[in-house]
Amino acid sequence: MDMPQALTQNPVSPKIEPLKKIAPKKSPRKILVVLTVILALIGLGAFFAFTAFYLPGKALLAQVNLTKNEALKLKQSLSDKDLNQIKNNLQNIRTELQNTDDKFKKFSFLKIVPKAKDYYHDGENLIKIGKDALDTGEIVIKAAEPYQDFLGLKGSSTSSAKTTEDRISFLTDSVESLLPHLDAVEKKISEIDSSINEIDINRYPQYYKDIPLHQDFNQIKEIISQARKLVSDGRPILTKTSWLLGKDKPRNYLVIFQNDGELRPSGGFWTAYSSIKVDKGKITPGTSSNIYDLDDKISSTVPAPRLIKSYHLNVPYLNLRDSNLSPDFPTDAQIFLDGYY
């Protein structure tokens, strides 16, 4: 007996799919632990920011404002020429600046933070500049105290019996005592100049709360540079002041007046002259006249140089009034003196 067709065919094997791994459900307790840790870290971060930045920063800003207020008082005292008040202001600023330094050092951990360490270093330089400036001010005050009368400072014992000549005589006798102070001032200004040159103002915005940071910084930098040059250039004059004022014996001077309405290489036409005598700071005027009278007395026989012959056809000789043909004044003065003597 034949079997049915359906039973004679091979049965279809059932398709067996691979078992999927079923992830275990997270325990609510583990989720709570993770959230707790995250919140704790956020809280610790906020607490660190609050204690390490906000509170010290707020205190530092308040201290900076106190120091600024004392600086404004100093500015007023300088305007009033009140020496005693200036000394008090300098001491108050020193105290407030030291407090500022103490509060600023709480951010010293920034020294190891990239980028931030540059700003911290700028802050250190600014505080050092402030301290050096105070040192300089105190040196200047100490140097100026013996000359209160001469400088007309408030609180000085200026008397109507003291004439200007008396004050100049006093200055002549004691000016050498300023030299050690000048050495100290020059050293301090050099240190300030070096510190300010270490600050890169380009790290900061052009303006902050309508304050032109770059402009103010560059002006201060220029003032310091000029002060350094002034002290350096003034030293030779100060060392010669007693000699120039005739402390050891009378000195005679010839003064030449230039007219910048007629330009010459040294700045103007030498139009007049005067002689003066200085004896221990006391000035006695001598003769004075226009330069033509002096030339008439001398009657130069020195042949005029090419420049004079080119522009003054009827001037064959070198007159004293035409001595300043060089932009270097000492050269012109020597030519003048050779003819004068």
Helix and strand sequence: HHHHHHHEEHHEEEHHH
Structural class: mainly alpha
Beta-strand portion reads 5-15%
Work out the count of structural domains.
2
Largest sheet: 3 strands, antiparallel
Q: Unreliable runs, pLDDT <50, ≥5 residues?
A: none
Shape, please? elongated
Report the average pLDDT across residues.
Answer: 81
Distance between the termini: 163 Å
Helix tally? 12
The count of β-strands is: 5
Rounded to an integer in angstroms, the radius of gyration calculated over CA atoms is: 41 Å
Fraction of residues in helix: 55-70%
- Side by side, the strands of the main sheet go 3-4-5
Short description:
The protein is mainly alpha-helical and 341 residues long.
Explain how this protein is built.
- The chain is mainly α and 341 residues long.
- The protein has two domains: 195 residues, no CATH class; 90 residues, no CATH class.
- It is built from twelve helices and five strands.
- The strands form two sheets. Strands 3-4-5 form a three-stranded antiparallel beta sheet. It has a two-stranded antiparallel ribbon with strand order 1-2.
- Helix 2 packs antiparallel against helix 3, helix 3 packs antiparallel against helix 4 and helix 7 packs antiparallel against helix 8.
- The chain is elongated.
- The mean pLDDT is 81.
